[in-house]
Design brief:
Pfam families: Rotamase
Keywords: Isomerase, Rotamase, Signal
Radius of gyration: 26 Å
Domain PpiC: 221-323, 326-430
Structural class: alpha+beta
Number of helices: 16
Shape: globular
InterPro entries: OMP_Chaperone_SurA (IPR050280), PPIase_dom_sf (IPR046357), PPIase_PpiC (IPR000297), PPIase_PpiC_CS (IPR023058), Trigger_fact/SurA_dom_sf (IPR027304)
Signal peptide: 1-20
Strand content: 5-15%
Helix content: 40-55%
């Protein structure tokens, strides 16, 4: 549903990184039998019923028995229970495999580390449910789109090659990622809520580093400021007409009663988040929607009518009203996105290279070119300067790891004042964008000083304070939560105390 929302998820966590909220744990002696085949009996299934998953009095209240698995029918095996939520052997193995594929290091004792990470995630998810934390479909879809675009790029830009490699269709991959991203973002939002009121004063920052030896002061990574000038490749008129004709055909079929709007949305909409809901976006305020989409949606009055074709920054839509409540609206939509051909990409890159050559020849400055030629709304009025927005500050300085990977790769070898050749990247909204960039400033890695790096040092102290707060919260939550695990896990040395209870 990011296809119509203005809001964006700047940095979406992968499933593994979302769960990696505890440090590497070491085992006191190896865990035997951890890699058994996934055999079990129907008795290992968890029966859910309690509304509150904490402080379960005993296994009978939970309706769960954790017995030694037997080689019966081939079903999954419950190895942990946290509250009334099971952790399956398949959950652990899936996390292990995904982590391995993504280069994630679980430490020397993954058999202990992984289930603890999953268990901690379940504690945050449970609290998020109690606190009514929500994640919009737009956020989920945008995260899934970013991950899918990354997968496709890694497969040489070919969806067909990706499907062949993964032995799954694009649709199946999206479906699998959906719930994983939803849970990872719920965990992220819950963690943010728990520490949102924490702050540190300048005096606390100075006190923290006052007696620290010079060679123990943190190293500040290389920091850069980058300006960009973008050109977004445009679809051909023929491609736009193809999209519009398809949407007109959809409207005609709906008006004739041949098929419902919801069915067509489920089958054809390229907003995969809302497509699963028959195109329904849920009750939403005008300010959360793309302006063109909002104008058309809020003008609808008859639920039986279908809007005219609407062009937004995400593509082309038709919309159907479901209901209106005050200043919020619920509607369905179908989104189709024109395909961008390689000739359009080549044309945009060629024009950018020509602009870059003129800048290097001194005909005009990079900043002047941005004002006249760039189509990036976020940077156009600021000389193309990228903004690095976090929860605590908004700055133009980036550590290299915080830049979009495509930009970081180009900037890494540039000199201050240099203008790059044209290259392409995929934006947060899943669009192909062509750009050139200029390295405005660069400060190489160095030991922190209060005078020059106060904000970075403040962030270090603040992060430590937040980490300690979350650590204390998890330990308290464990004490109030029913936890049960198979015997072989009880010898693990976990990061958090309290997992192994008297049972």
């Amino acid at each position: 549903m990011n296809k119509i929302y203005k809001t964006s998820l700047i940095a979406v966590l992968s499933v593994v990184s979302a769960m990696a909220i505890v440090g590497n744990a070491a085992s006191t002696g190896g865990v035997t039998g951890m890699m058994r085949p996934l055999y079990g009996t129907a008795d290992t299934a968890v029966q859910k019923g309690a509304a509150d998953t904490t402080a379960v009095a005993n296994p009978a209240d939970l309706g769960t028995e954790l017995s030694e698995p037997t080689r019966g029918s081939i079903v999954d095996e419950v190895v942990w229970v946290v509250g009334d939520e099971p952790i399956l052997m398949s959950d652990i193995e899936a996390t292990r495999l995904q982590g391995s594929a993504e280069g994630h290091d679980f430490g020397d004792n993954a058999d202990c580390t992984i289930p603890e990470q999953i268990a901690v995630q379940k504690l945050f998810l449970h609290q998020a449910a109690l606190d009514s934390i929500e994640v919009s479909e737009s956020e989920i879809t945008q995260g899934v789109d970013q991950q899918m675009n990354y997968f496709i790029q890694m497969a040489g830009g070919s969806k067909e090659r990706l499907e062949q490699y993964r032995h799954e269709t694009i649709s199946q991959m999206r479906q699998e990622l959906h719930d994983e991203y939803k849970n990872s973002m719920l965990v992220q939002k819950m963690r943010q809520k728990l520490v949102e009121d924490i702050s540190v004063s300048p005096a606390e920052v100075r006190s923290y580093f006052k007696n620290m030896p010079a060679d123990s002061l943190p190293k500040i990574p290389t920091t850069v400021e980058v300006e960009i000038l973008t050109q977004t490749p445009k679809p051909t008129p023929e491609e736009v007409n193809r999209i519009k004709n398809e949407l007109r055909e959809f409207t005609d079929r709906i008006n004739k009663g041949e098929i419902s709007f919801a069915t067509l949305a489920s089958l054809y909409s390229e907003d995969t988040g809302s497509a699963r809901q028959g195109g329904e976006i849920g009750y939403t305020g005008r300010g959360m929607l793309d302006p063109a989409f909002a104008a058309a949606a809020f003008n609808l009055t008859d639920p039986k009518k279908v809007s005219k074709i609407v062009e937004s920054e995400f593509g082309y839509h038709i919309i159907q009203l479901i209901d209106r409540r005050g200043d919020r609206i619920n509607c369905r939509h179908i989104l189709l996105k024109p395909r961008i051909g390689q000739p359009a990409i080549d044309k945009a890159e060629s024009r950018l290279d020509s602009i870059g050559n003129d800048i290097r020849a001194g005909k005009f400055t990079f900043e002047d070119a941005v004002g006249y030629l760039s189509d990036d709304k976020d940077t156009k009025n600021n000389n193309g300067l990228l903004a690095n927005s976090t929860q605590t500050e908004r700055t133009s300085r980036f550590h290299m790891k915080d830049l979009p990977s495509e930009i970081a790769k180009v900037v890494d070898t540039m000199k201050v004042g240099e203008v790059s050749r044209a290259f392409q990247m995929v934006s947060e909204r899943g669009k192909v964008v062509c750009l050139i960039c200029k390295l405005k400033s660069r400060v190489d890695e160095h030991r922190a000083t209060i005078a020059e790096d106060f904000q970075d040092m403040k962030n270090i102290v603040l992060a430590k304070r937040k980490e300690d707060t979350l650590q204390q919260w998890v330990e308290k939550k464990i004490k109030d939560t029913y936890v049960r695990m198979l015997p072989e896990y009880k010898n693990c040395k976990f990061q958090y105390e309290g997992w192994v209870k008297d049972q």
